[in-house]
């Protein structure tokens, strides 16, 4: 009897994981974020960038490719970078974006700059179930967050 209950529990858990994985692909990009248009713009020109910046609003507002790129373009070598900082961004959200960018295998990407953010802090109550927070909760990021 116990073996049967254990088997049924295992089957139920496996079914949960399977359905969860299928539903994950249907989760749309958050409408409360400017990230999807920025990511789409990056993917349109992904092979043109040497560097990408990831992080919170400090990166979003503080690193300007229009200022940095001319300073680093020397000796006939053009430096092109792209800012994927997120206003109000959090560590796991930046990780999620970085995985999407790296999965696209940009041909000339040589540098990835990531703002060091705390992995230990938890989300404020008001952001726990926002569309942005739900979006980065794939299996691997949820496992790392736990």
Spatial order of the strands in the main sheet? 2-1-3
From the alpha carbons, calculate the radius of gyration and give it in angstroms.
19 Å
Order of helices and strands: HHEHHEHEHH
**Helix segment count?**
7
Distance between the termini: 33 Å
Largest sheet data: 3 strands, parallel
Portion of residues within helices: 40-55%
The average pLDDT value, as a whole number, equals 81
Assembly status: single chain
Instruction: Please report the total strand number as a whole number.
Output: 3
Give a structural overview.
The protein is mainly α. The chain has helices at 2-24, 35-44, 57-62, 65-72, 91-103, 131-135, 139-145, and strands at residues 51-55, 81-85, 111-114. Strands 2-1-3 form a three-stranded parallel beta sheet, with helices on both faces. The two termini are 33 Å apart.
Protein topology:
Layout: H1 2-24, H2 35-44, E1 51-55, H3 57-62, H4 65-72, E2 81-85, H5 91-103, E3 111-114, H6 131-135, H7 139-145
Parallel strand pairs: 1-2, 1-3
Report a brief summary of the structure.
This protein has 146 residues and is mainly alpha-helical.
Supply the key terms.
146 residues; mainly alpha; three-stranded parallel β-sheet; 7 helices; 3 strands
């Amino acid at each position: 009897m116990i073996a049967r209950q254990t088997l049924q529990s295992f089957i139920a858990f496996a079914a949960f994981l399977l359905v969860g994985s299928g539903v994950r692909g249907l989760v749309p990009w958050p409408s409360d974020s400017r990230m999807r248009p920025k990511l789409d713009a990056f993917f349109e020109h992904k092979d043109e960038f040497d560097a990408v910046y990831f992080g919170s609003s400090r990166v979003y507002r503080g690193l300007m490719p229009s200022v940095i790129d001319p300073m680093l373009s020397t000796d006939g070598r053009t430096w092109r970078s792209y800012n994927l900082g997120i206003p109000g961004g959090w560590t796991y959200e930046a990780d999620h974006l970085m995985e999407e960018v790296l999965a696209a295998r940009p041909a000339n990407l040589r540098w990835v700059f990531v703002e060091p953010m705390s992995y230990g802090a938890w989300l404020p109550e008001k952001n726990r179930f926002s569309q942005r927070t739900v979006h980065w909760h794939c299996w691997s990021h949820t496992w790392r967050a736990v």
